[in-house]
Amino acid sequence: MSEQPEYHTLIRQNLMLIENERREIAFELHNEIGQNLTAIRTAAQLMHRQSEGRQTHPVAESIVSLTDQMYTSMHSLLHRLHPSILDKFGLSDSLLDLITFVQEYMGLKCHLDVMGNLDGLPEDLQLAVYRIVQEALTNAVRHGQATETDVKLFVSKDALQVFVYNNGTQLDSDLDALIRHKSSGIGLLGIQHRVQAWHGDLAFKNLDDGVKLSCSFPLAN
Ligand SMILES: Nc1ncnc2c1ncn2[C@@H]1O[C@H](COP(=O)(O)OP(=O)(O)O)[C@@H](O)[C@H]1O
Ligand SMILES: [Mg+2]
Question: Which of 8, 139, 172, 195 stands the most exposed, by the fewest C-beta atoms within 10 Å?
Fold first, then answer.
């Protein structure tokens, strides 16, 4: 694999294109589907009120509850497509929001430690780190059946380090083999690309009681 500077620039541009596309899709979904769902819900509520005591009453009620469910799942999809909280509140708050979601909906006890100021980092590096932590937490649950994780971030003048520990089952191969394995997804490859794009280092290792993902990114002074 080439280590030329143009290679890193290309990966970074490619990742930015993908993220921009995801942002566009999230906005389209939000505007088109969100508005129509709200309109259907309002119509069903009206029908519900007007049909009290008649046969249409329970049908209208179930349309309201179905649209509510669709709204909730659309919002979680939008959040995965593009975490808009990142644009508004920066990386620290977005990671807190992510671990709250993971604890609530994926049953993973999660602890976050941040040392230093994350919000001064370049915006696309913040997005890269968010995506890396998001994938590592999803993998911890999906593949490791982990019940607890620790996410630690350290920012100094020269570097950003990101660690995700989990208490799940051990890895059965090294990182390169996991990425090369044909049945595997693109999650670890995405992490590797994001780390390479920022000239960073990546390690994924077994510990006595779980698994540790470490990334470090040099920061320009
Ligand atoms: N936290 C983890 N614990 C155990 N195995 C893992 C973990 N993360 C990844 N793996 C292994 O690496 C493979 C590739 O992961 P990934 O690229 O994220 O693909 P996907 O999640 O779509 O299967 C997984 O299929 C799994 O075997
Ligand atoms: Mg994955």
Answer: 172
